[in-house]
Amino acid sequence: MGTKVNIIVGSHVWAEEPDVAWVDGEVVKINGDEAEIQAANGKKIVSKLSKLYPKDMEAAAGGVDDMTKLSYLHEPGVLQNLATRYELNEIYTYTGNILIAVNPFQRLQHLYDSHMMQQYKGAPFGELSPHVFAVADVAYRAMIHEGRSNSILVSGESGAGKTETTKMLMQYLAYLGGRAATEGRTVEQQVLESNPVLEAFGNAKTVRNNNSSRFGKFVEIQFDKHGRISGAAVRTYLLERSRVCQISDPERNYHCFYLLCAAPQEELDKYKLENPRTYHYLNKSNCYDLVGVSDAREYLATRRAMDIVGISTQEQDAIFRVVAAILHIGNIEFAKGKEVDSSVLKDDKSKFHLETAAELLMCDPGAFTDALCKRVMVTPEEVIKRSLDPYSATISRDGFAKTIYSRLFDWLVDKINSSIGQDANSKCLIGVLDIYGFESFKSNSFEQFCINYTNEKLQQHFNQHVFKMEQEEYTKEQIDWSYIEFVDNQDVLDLIEKKPGGVIALLDEACMFPKSTHETFAQKLYQTFQKHKRFVKPKLSRTDFAIAHYAGEVLYQSDQFLDKNKDYVVAEHQELLSASRCSFIAGLFPPPPEETSKSSKFSSIGARFKQQLQALMDTLNSTEPHYIRCVKPNNVLKPAIFENVNVMQQLRCGGVLEAIRISCAGYPTRRTFYEFLHRFGILAPDAIEGNCDEKAACKRILEKKGLIGFQIGKTKVFLRAGQMAELDARRTEVLSVAAKTIQGKIRTHIMRKKFVSLRKASVCFQAVWRGTLACKLYDRMRRQAASVKIQKNQRGHQARRSYKLQVSSVLVIQAALRAMAARNEFRHKKRSKAAVTIQARYRCHRAHSYHKKLKAAAIVAQCRWRGRIARKELRKLKMEARETGALKQAKDKLEKTVEELTWRVQLEKRMRTDLEEAKAQELSKFQSSMDALQAKLDETNAVLLKEREAAKKAIAEAPPVVKETEVIVQDTEKVHTLKAEVDELKTSLQSEKQRADELEKKRSEEAQANEEKQKKIEETEVKIRQFQDYLRRLEEKLSNVESENKVLRQQAVSVAPAKILSGRSKSNLQVSQLVVMFYPLFHLGQYIGNIHCFLIFAEECGKWSCIS
């Protein structure tokens, strides 16, 4: 429907955007057949001109209630109109007489109350806002006035709100149809209350909807000749039987199973039920509860609805016994038997569930086991019993559950119809069709195939109805429409239902042959439809096939097509349940009629569904149809979210876009003569002037602009697709030129008017300004004279004030300076005293430090000098080493040195004791002085307190009028003096404390030093004792050496007086000389810590050791 013409730079258009389907923007550049669009969301899009759609910039801000009123009837226009109305909570929109209902996912109670019903009752269609009540009212009025049956077709995907819309339709029809009573209960009440019953047994949670109808429903509401409801009937189609045994996460099984598990405890005990998580048919999915829904309350509501529709208590009990039995049947498991291809119950748990199911179904447990695990084959010769393997037994079990549930649902529908009652004399009815919408999932089976087949049928009916409406419109306006082509989907229907070569026929044929499989069925489809344009064979699968439906291509998996198509009851199951002791269950399985022909032995779901669908289509063709298309705005099921891509797909699946295509194939744009001339009269003003015929004027405008293919009706102008956009483009050009001309004239007029106004204003301004200047000059002169006088008085006042201020300031400054001088003098005296104290302390410290340095230097000098003397003595001793008497002298000298060192140690001990006593005396003196100062301070504080109390007493006894007396001043001065003395005492006390702390610190340091010296003295005493022992041993050696020397001398005198002493005597003599010579140095080094002297002694001793 796009067009590459009439798009110019500056045009507002719709362009495709994958994320949001369509986005609006402005054309900023055109290159050949491509255009660059600046989108409203800020993006720049390049698209072909043929894929662009013009945007109506004059559209109403709130959208239009009927989309046939849109200037541009195309996909983005329809989508934008729905989105705009949805934002305003306008969920209903017309497309001709088709109602589009967008699910709001919230309660809008004001739209469905009795007041709203009263407003729409009898109102002409289109006069009020779009509403589901308007469609129901039109159908009801048409039935009353024309005497013809009507039908309302409600369609849409799961979660679009079909069920709720159907309820609203039935409520409104019940409101219009009055109150025809039947056995104490009204027909409309029974019809409305049949919904909860059918929802409990036919609805389930799916991926897209929490309450999805898994069957099609056509409700026939019958009316008498007075327009009152006289009867009703419910027709159902294609219940999804496979859901009983197969569900996927996060879906749920049918609601009735969960409602029964939430029943009161006495009923659970009665049916031996537990938590739904324990049942195989329910725990295949992890979803057991619905958000915001109480299964317990819904169970009670379903019971009440059963009472209203006429189901007795005994029948209700039997119904829920069947439901409980199905849950127990699902928990029966099989294992391999002893025989080949046989099966037995797996364990005691399976046996319990089988016995419970048999008890609920009131049949024999043994026969029940045989019905599940065995098959009977009847031959002309004999009857053969064949055992089933565990897999086949499981399939038999699931088939049994599906069959009994399907029969139960059919019984419910029949019971509701019989309870409501049908009017055989009714001539008119209104049918409400609530049927599943087009479905396309990741995995599509036989159910989706039948659903999409139904939607293809309904789409053809819808297309024919829309085309018929177009024909009526064209005929009414008397225009030629014979060449308009009609878009039909008959080829898809032929592919599905044609005999003998359709998909359903081939499926029935495959089901008749026992050896047929889904693979052979798929190969048969490939061979038959390999050249069909609607049939697609996937490249990567051998059993799947795809069909190109009107809403898109759907890929089907044929794995279970054959099993799901077979509609027969196993003979063993039929016999088992027919023999049930419960009349209700036996009634669900009546004896089959006698088969008269061979062809009647096989019955298929597809064939039966095809017959039901054909009957439905015959019913719809015999009625006047009305269409309601339900749309789900988002997949998260939340309000105020509108997903463009999702809605566009649903519009395509619902046939709305197909209807638009049908309209666009003819004349999609229609305008009355007045609207057309009002909008496009500016294109040819000469055609309107002097011409009162609107039809001729419209035709002249279109011919003048060179348009072809348009039609002029009796009251409207019919334009082909794209012609409205072309006229709008030309209208935009004319308006642009006119706007530029008007802007030029207006700007000239504005500038001329502005110039004259400025000139007039300038003259007035000059006159006013000159007068203002004269007034200002006079005022200035007067102000100058006044200011001189004011300045004179002010200066005199300021001079007097300044003089007084200076006098007072001088007095204050003098007092402050005198106080400061006194404080400075006091501070100087205080600092002088502190400086004298510090100087004394420092000089004492410096003298003490100098004394210590002199002492250390003297010791060093003594050491050096004694070392020098020792070296000289060493040289002398070397010369006198041979003399034995030298050893004696050395011994005496060493003893003298030891005595001297002992005396020094004692002297140092005595000095240390005297020092400690002196320090203790000094500390006691400091402590006594501190105590005296503290006592003086306490005395001063006591005096001060007494004086303060006396002052307070004097103030209290003084008369009220305070007089200045010298006593108060003297007391105040005395108080200040005392405070100053106290502050001085505190300062002196603080300084004394600091001195005491410093002395204490010095005392601790001296004590530490004395301890170190004491340690050194003790070490020295130990070493002296060791040295004395050494000397004693040395004396013994010397005595031995002397005796040996005497002997040697005698020998030397006798043998060789002139020979040198032997090496041994010489070595001994050298040792003695070394000891005598270095002993003072060693002792001196031990006392004063002179390591150098000690090393000399050690080195010489080492040399001696080497010599010895």
Mean pLDDT: 82
User: How many helices in DSSP terms?
Assistant: 30
Shape: extended
The strand order across the widest sheet is 6-7-23-8-19-13-14
End-to-end distance: 131 Å
**Helix fraction?**
55-70%
| CATH topology title of the domain at 469-593 | Methane Monooxygenase Hydroxylase, Chain G, domain 1
What is the CATH top level name of the domain at 469-593? Mainly Alpha
CATH architecture classification name of the domain at 469-593: Up-down Bundle
Domain Myosin N-terminal SH3-like: 8-57
GO cellular component, one term: cytoplasm
Region (Actin-binding): 613-635
Keywords: Actin-binding, ATP-binding, Calmodulin-binding, Coiled coil, Motor protein, Myosin, Nucleotide-binding, Repeat
Strand and helix layout:
Layout lengths: L11 E6 L3 E11 L2 E6 L4 E5 L4 E2 L20 H13 L4 E4 L2 E5 L11 H7 L11 H15 L3 E6 L6 H15 L4 E2 L2 E2 H16 E2 L7 E2 L2 E8 L5 E9 L17 H7 L3 H7 L23 H15 L3 H18 L3 E3 L6 E3 L2 H14 L3 H9 E5 L4 E5 L2 H31 L7 E7 L11 H32 L12 H8 L5 H10 L5 H11 L6 E2 L7 E6 L2 E6 L3 H5 L5 H8 L4 H6 L16 H17 L2 E8 L12 H10 L2 H10 L3 E4 H8 L4 H4 L5 H11 L6 E2 L3 E4 L3 H157 L4 H74 L8 H90 L7 H26 L2 H17 L1
Parallel strand pairs: 7-23, 8-19, 8-23
Antiparallel strand pairs: 1-2, 1-5, 2-3, 3-4, 6-7, 9-10, 11-12, 13-14, 13-19, 15-16, 17-18, 20-21, 21-22, 24-26, 25-26
Helix pairs in contact: 3-4, 4-5, 5-8, 5-12, 6-8, 9-10, 9-12, 13-14, 13-20, 13-22, 15-16, 23-25, 26-29, 27-28, 27-29, 28-29, 29-30
